[in-house]
Write a structure and sequence with these properties.
Length: 242
């Protein structure tokens, strides 16, 4: 669902939150310490998004590939997710923030899924900002599950099979996990890494990309505003000549 917002404030800013482990290591602490500090950056970016008029803020919190990390770190991260959601939800709800989680939730624990469902239901009617947490997500998984959903729909409705040949990009968009959400105008990755790491591969086709050296726990309001300012100076042509 493309968003041709040519100038000014981006409608949708997406963050690849990277560098928690390195931030902790530089301070002689365990990696998990960086994850706890990173929660403060999430809070700061949510506040900055509301203040600058961004309507969608999405955060790449945990990829499908992250399940391969040491079990102790995965368990800590999942526990942190539950605690952070419970702690932050009253403030998010009070400030009109709608909360969403997108990803392969079948891999999440029942306890975490229950907290997610509760938080999403509590904030469903809010419209100041939509905060999207990509959890157990990958771009390739999203495209694959979309293709599977499309195949199932065609098998269950064979009379619609001919429509497949006429399907355009927007027609396929509705099968993605992000259906109904504008594609990100700006994708920011922290920590100096210059890759998407299997994130929003379809949706980010025309996103502006910004790679910054700042480690995620140090990425706060000022850094967020600088990213928005960077976007405002970009000339988005979508393949057109202007």
């Amino acid at each position: 669902m493309a968003n041709e917002n040519m100038t000014g404030i981006p409608v949708h800013v997406s963050m690849i939150m990277d560098g928690n482990g390195r931030w902790a290591k530089e301070r002689g602490k365990e990696r998990v310490y960086g994850h706890f500090e990173g929660v403060e950056s999430v809070r700061a970016c949510v506040e900055a998004a509301v203040e600058t008029g961004v309507k969608y803020l999405s955060l790449y919190a945990f990829s499908e590939e992250n399940w391969n990390r040491p079990q102790a770190e995965v368990d800590t991260l999942m526990g942190l997710m539950v605690k952070a959601m419970a702690n932050e939800m009253p403030a998010l709800d009070k400030n009109g923030v709608r909360f969403m989680v997108i990803g392969n939730r079948e891999r999440l624990s029942n306890d975490l899924n229950e907290v997610i469902d509760s938080c999403m239901a509590q904030t469903a009617s809010n419209n100041v900002l939509t905060l999207i947490i990509f959890l157990s997500y990958s771009g390739k998984w999203d495209i694959l599950q979309a293709a599977k959903r499309m195949a199932v729909e065609m098998l269950e409705n064979p009379e619609k099979a001919d429509d497949l040949l006429d399907m355009d990009i927007n027609g396929f968009d509705r099968f993605l996990a992000t259906a109904g959400i504008p594609d990100p105008d700006l994708i920011v990755r922290t920590s100096g890494e210059c890759r998407l790491s299997n994130y929003l591969l379809w949706q980010g086709a025309y996103s502006e990309l910004l790679f910054v050296d700042t480690l995620w726990p140090d990425f706060r309001k000022e850094e967020f505003r600088k990213a928005v300012e960077y976007y405002s100076k970009r000339d988005r042509r979508y393949g057109k000549v202007k």
